[in-house]
Amino acid sequence: MKLSKTKKALVITASVICAAAIIVLAFFAGFWTRGKIGNSSFDWAMDIIKEYYYKEINSGNAENVALDALVAEYLDIYSEYYTAEEYAAQQNANAGVKSGFGISVSYIPQRGLTLMSVVGNSPAFAAGLRTGDVIVSATSEGKTAEFSSLSDFNAFLSGIGDEDTVTFNTAEDSFEVTQAVYATSYVLFATNDTAWTFTGSDALEMTESEGDKIEYLHDDTGYISLSQFYGNAPEQFRAAVEKFNEEGCTRLILDLRNDGGGYVSVMQQIAACFAPCKGGSAAMVARYRNGTEEVYNIISSSSQPVISADTEVYILSNSNTASASEALMGCLISYGATDYGNIYISDYAESYLNAVGVTAADAKSGSTYGKGIMQSTFVNRFTGEALKLTTAQIYWPNGVTIHGTGLTSAEGAENRCNAVEAPLPISGDGEELAFVARAIYSS
User: Fold this and answer.
1) pLDDT tens-digit profile of 179-191?
2) What are the domain boundaries of the chain?
3) Which residues 6+ apart lie within 8 Å of 4 measured at CB?
4) What would the mean pLDDT of 297-323 be, rounded to a whole number?
5) 141 and 161 in contact (C-beta within 8 Å)?
6) Which of 127, 192, 313, 321 could pair with 217 as two cysteines, CB 3.0-4.6 Å apart?
C-alpha cells in the first residue's frame, strides 16, 4: 500500500459504536496509527481524507465546519474524529483498563431494568451480578430508588460518587458494588463441573468461578465466551484452551454473541488456537481503493496451545456479533475448523421485539452484523488528535466478504447457518445456550 507522506506504525485495532441501548452496532476497524503533517488541523484532515478515504467526497462548504461536524456530514458512519483527550481515553480503554461498576443496562417493558452485559473482573462481576439479571432497585448512602425506566436509573447514578458503595437489588438477592478501576477479563471458560475467569490487576490470574458452571453440558463439552478482542484477550484465550485440553473436552461451544470486535492482532492470535489455522497463513485480506491488497496472517506464539482438528467447534452469534468476530468465524470456516452448519444465530423472539418496539429487520434478527470494511486511524503528531477513516474492504481467506450481509440463518440462503430463538439479545448461560446444547447432543 502507498505510504508516501506517512509513517506506518504497528498498532492495528477495531472498535465499536452504539445506537439504541438494545442494538449494538459494531464494526471492523483495522487501525493503522500514522502521523501526518498539515498546515492546520483542517488541512491535515482534508489531506488524509482525499488520499485515503475509500471513495471521493463532495466536500461542498466543508471549510466552514469543525472537524467533528465535517466527519459527521461528509463521511460514513464508521469514520470518526477524536480530540487528543478522546483518543488517549480510547487507547486506554482498548488496553483493557476500565473504571466504574462494569455493567450496561437497558429498560425492557414487561421485564424491567435488565443487565445487558457485566464485564469480567469488574466490581459488578466480582459481586455476583450477571448478564440477564433484572435490577428492581438500588440503595446508596441510605437512599433507595426503584426503577421503572432507564431515566430513573440514570438519575440515580448521577448522584453516585466515585467511591460510593451501591447495593443493587434483584427480586431474589442484593449485591454490594463499589466503582473501581479494573482490568477486563474477556474470556470465561466453563464445563458442567465448574468455570474459570480471569482476575487480578492485569486480569491474567485464571480463577475458578464455580457459580458460572453450566450443568447441562456433557462431560466432553467446554464452553468459551469471548466478549471482545482487546487487552489481554489472547493470553486469556490461550489459557482457556489449555484448560479445555486438560479437561479432555472434544466439543467446544464458542460464544461470540455481542462481541463487536477489537484489535485485529488479537483476532490473528486467537485464530492460531485452532489447529487447522496454521501460523503464517492468511487470517484475512484487506483490499484498498487503489486495488492493492494487504494480508493479515495468523500469529502463533512460541508455545501455542491448540484445539485439535478433531474437535467439534460450535459458534453462537447474534446481530451484535461483528467485525473481528465475523473475521474469526470466516477464518475458522475457511480452514475447516468449523462450518456453517455448526453456527447458531439468534432469532429474536416476537415478545422481545414488540416490547422494545423494533422490527426483526431493524434488529438484524437471524444474522450477524455484517461489517466487512476496515478503518484506519491517523494521528496528528503535533496535536494528538486522530481521524478514523474507512479505507478497505475485508475478505476471508477463502475470498468471501460478508460486508452488508453478515452470516445468516435465512431459509434458502447459500451457506445457511442455524437459527436459535432468543428471548433477549444477551450472551452467557440461558435459554439460547441450552437450546444449542440440546441440538448438538441430539445430532
Assistant:
1) 999 999 999 999 9
2) 8-94, 99-181, 184-369+395-442
3) none
4) 96
5) no
6) 192
At the fourth CATH level, the homologous superfamily of domain 99-181 is: PDZ domain (2.30.42.10)
Residues 6+ apart with CB under 8 A from 60: 74
Please, are residues 251 and 221 in contact by the beta-carbon 8 Å criterion? yes
Cell numbers representing residue 56 in the block: 471521493
What is the C-alpha separation between 200 and 186, in angstroms, rounded? Answer: 13
Q: Give the integer Cα–Cα distance in Å for 239 and 197.
A: 10
Radius of gyration of the chain (CA): 22
Cβ 335 vs Cβ 313: under 8 Å: no
DSSP string computed for 1-57: ---TT-EE-S----EE---SSS---EE------EE---SSHHHHHHHHHHHHSSS--
What b/e readout covers 65-94, taking b as 16+ CB neighbours within 10 angstroms?
A: bebeebbeebbbebbbbbeeeebeebbeeb
345: number of Cβ within 10 Å: 27
Q: C-alpha grid cell for residue 317? A: 452469534
Pairing of strands 221-226, 187-190: antiparallel
Backbone phi, psi, residue 342, to 5°: -100, 10
Cell 485480506 belongs to residue: 285
- Residue 327's closest CA among 400, 236, 408, 221? 400
The CATH code of the domain at 184-369+395-442 is: 3.90.226.10
Residue range 10-61, pLDDT digits in tens: 233 343 333 222 222 223 433 334 444 445 888 899 889 988 888 888 766 6
Residue length of the chain = 443
